[in-house]
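CORE FACILITY INTAKE
Project code: CF-77B
Contact: R.S. (postdoc)
Sample description: multi-component assembly, two entities in total
Requested service: structural model of the whole complex
Turnaround: standard
Below are the sequence entries exactly as provided by the requester. Do not edit them.
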Amino acid sequence: MDLYEHQARELFAEHGIVVPRAEVTDSPARAREIARALGGRAVVKAQVKTGGRGKAGGVRLAADPAAAEEAARHILGMDIKGHRVEAVMLAEPVDIQQEFYVSYVLDRAAGGFLAVASAEGGTEIEEVAAERPEAVVRVPVDPAAGLTTPTAVRIADAAGLPPQSVDVLVRLWQVLVREDALLVEVNPLVRTVDGRIVALDGKVTLDDNALFRQTRWGERHATAADPLEARAAAKGLNYVKLDGEVGVIGNGAGLVMSTLDVVAGCGARPANFLDIGGGASARVMADGLSVVLSDPAVKSVLVNVFGGITACDAVADGIVRALDEVRPTKPIVVRLDGNSAARGRALLDARAHPLVEQATTMDGAASRAARHATAAPTAG
Amino acid sequence: MAIHLTKESKVLVQGMTGAEGMKHTRRMLAAGTDVVGGVNPRKAGRTVDFGERSVPVFGSVREGVERTGADVTVVFVPPAFAKAAVTEAADAGIGLAVVITEGIPVHDSVAFTAHAKARGTRVVGPNCPGLISPGQSNAGIIPPDITKPGPVGLVSKSGTLTYQLMYELREVGFSTCVGIGGDPVVGTTHIDCLAAFEDDPDTELVVLIGEIGGDAEERAADYIRDHVTKPVVGYIAGFTAPEGRTMGHAGAIVSGSSGTARAKRAALEAAGVRVGSTPTETARHVLAALGRPARDGAGA
């Protein structure tokens, strides 16, 4: 889960990293008051979980409270790369002398975290790394020892960061570890004209797997924007809405991704990703099918299950339940193989629903479902 | 032969007395796995009856190793306890720890994979189906009855795609199938398995299954070009995955231009790997490379 900038700022502050004074609001009138409290001038920043806010016009410097209100009114509701701006943060402007970059990122290949630092902050670090790789310092952090002060000193020296940033590096590591973050990034970290080191903007990605021990974030867990995704999430389903017309349900992330590709290869577009997981019950299958069938964009459904832990008879039972519960109007193509497949197929045969057909192979099933979707009238 | 897991492997199960542990221990035993004990400090000294075999429960991995000579452990404990379980196994000198548990915090995985590596313990997983050497031993939750022993080695991030390929190639059979797991940090990589299959006399050909996210497949491609002489057939899932969305596996996410299926396929093909566009086509490439006819049932 990515945090908003203002949440990242809050975390940094809690861990003793200096951040600008700031406040968040969704109201232009309130923005005026905040600007006044900040001393009149304020930077008004869109709170969206995507980069490129500045280029999109989502960051404005307001010279006085009236301008802050006007900027907030302009930015609120703006669409930035598909993200609607629901809130703005107003921050006190800082007089910058120099901008730096520091982050800890997960290095999958090494199986650990990497400290990344540069004296050329303020822009996308990928661009700096591409143009002048020598300007970006990368130091692996020992998983057993964590980030020690001597390592932080070495990183700061190598990257050309000011000595006071060693403290920031150490505290930022504490944010990473204590909050179970997968990424913490400060860009830019600035030296102000009056010599302070301030984290001006930041990004934090938390590990969803750690929510069981990071309970404060559980409450703030972003609710899915898409109504179908919200419904699926409420039922504990692993569902991602896509743009197409073939609803896809399968077991196991890899097999479902593969099924989406095979559908696309048949000339149709998948409407969603839905992984019912290992050992799914009939209830999970029924819930999944009812969510997918309720998507108005779906013209046909493909159920592709290879039973390992999952028993195909439970899957078939779930399909039968959903048929009774939601009374579908769209064709459903089912391919069952593996654990208890014969029993599962027999269950579906016995139900003999006119909209349900079985296929013996994954490719065959995908091509049937694709044909149904592309042949169906648009007003289905 | 096979890799990492053979008939001689003596297997402990951490979390054996839980519901999942019980179910899968029964299945592992039925597949011929030499399960020599379970580990649960609260149930030490008891035995669990699995029909044809009673399995003792030990208070610690170390006790299990001392009493049975166990060299493999399969970990089914809940996410919050996985780090302690793997650390304990590594400290007890276990050679192979297979971590089935899903949902382990990445900081924990980083810690226990590093700890295990420093002690010479291979970790497979986490969030994986484990590995099977058909006809010899099964450590994890891969269904043992899909396929038979044979000349194909398989390494995959995905469980069900592994089963799908095992099924497509059931007439050919496998030396070992390793599900390395879909998390961002895993103990055993595609490259580790490619190296082991290259050295395994029973493996004639390797199937490599990858998916979006990270650059493990690209690195595997470099390794294949420089170090693998046996034929490799590839498959990549996730061509239709949108940017920035996690597709089920925590590690399966396309960020910007990195981690795309297209890039992975291109890297593998540049290294001389034949890449199938569906699991079925992948199976056909395997049959062709082995000089076997494509027939109904196999690769169909």
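Facility notes:
- Chain B has a mean pLDDT of 94.
- Chain B touches chain A through 63 residues (CB under 8 Å).
Invoice: internal transfer
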